[in-house]
Protein: phosphoserine transaminase
Organism: Xylaria grammica
Amino acid sequence: SRSDITYFGAGPALLPTDVLEEAAGALLNYNATGLGVAEHSHRSALAAGIINQAKADLASCLDIPDDYEILFMQGGGTGQFSTSVYNFAGAWVARKYKEIFGDVQGDPTDHPELLNQLKQAVDDELKIDYLVTGGWSQKASVEGERLLGSKHINIAADARKTNGGKFGIIPDESTWKLSENAALVYFCDNETVDGVEFPTFPKSLEPGPDGKGPIVVADMSSNILTRKIPVRNFSAIFFGAQKNLGMTGITVVVIKKSFLPPTISQPSPTLMRYLGLPVPPIIFQYETAAKNNSLYNTLSIFDVYVAGQVLKKLLRIYPNKVEGQQAVTDKKARLIYDAIEAFPEIYKIIPNKAVRSRMNICFRVTKGDDIDAAEKAFLEEATAQGLTGLKGHRSLGGIRASNYNSVPLEGAEKLATFIRGFATS
Ligand code: PMP
């Protein structure tokens, strides 16, 4: 049964049982309305209430300032690989347009010289910087290149270059080749497949004393709500809900309002086409989502409801909000890493110690001569003890223990004990 198992899968992840039980009731009959929460109109006051409460609770958990907007979108983390490119390239063009056209009003085609100047600027200067530290940031950079073409893509760092072709490190910041005035600098805070996590916010991307700095966008799909984050250092943060927040089906974007109307509007499709840049699909425009409180089209209110219940629980358990969760997360990760490190002959942690992830603990079982047989035995014995979902990603092999928020402390203790026991058996 459910209570016999601790699931360490990489996502979708465990959800708290009490949240699921409550949600099961809400699916049938929400707040005694006779209709389930998934049946109510997304245009109802009830749906708006669920959305607004989830936004408020997320803002409270993470200390998100008022000048940031919270959007619920669809298309997953993968959708954001495209969305971030469309919107921040558009914002870059909008800023450049203002710089070049100044107060000149009317149709841009009435001013061919200015338009030409803008086209030249786009051709020469529009860059998106990627820090490639694992499979997910790499995928994002490939999508950026697919949408904009390689001349607009700058791989500011690639961990594989100085690590024998493999991920597992974060290149020293002094080696990063950041563009001047990039439309965005992209990084993935926690690489789910490779088990690499940024230990802290990168120094070279920090804003200066005037609050100004590079436009930073981060994928936090697999470590959101597990530690305190300096929200102000980011222009946007995105994450799929399905690991630490809720169910698959909604993607959350936290974005600085100054990238939305009235400060910045996406350039017209005609202008973007003239500049040779892609026009974002309407549902992938942040301003569409923002103007409609995430309800431009039918959103899964059930998914928002579940996320909301998870947030309520976090706020209930931890008076100090995400910092409380962080303490438990760090403790669970330490328990598991300590067990692995106690047997260097038997286990080998894959990523470099300084950047290893608290969320996705990736290691090989090197007991005996046959690694495959040792890992097979490890997985079989673990499963027999109710420790499941531990098989590593196919690209890396080995074992991956995902330590998301719904893995209880006792689950991590059980795994640590198993790791020690397997080593000495
Ligand atoms: N980014 C990261 C860090 C991920 O772990 C994942 C999925 N595991 C994705 C992006 C892709 O998310 P989705 O499957 O929601 O598109």
Notes: The two ends are 27 Å apart (CA to CA). Residues 321-424 form a domain with the Aspartate Aminotransferase, domain 1 fold (CATH 3.90.1150.10).
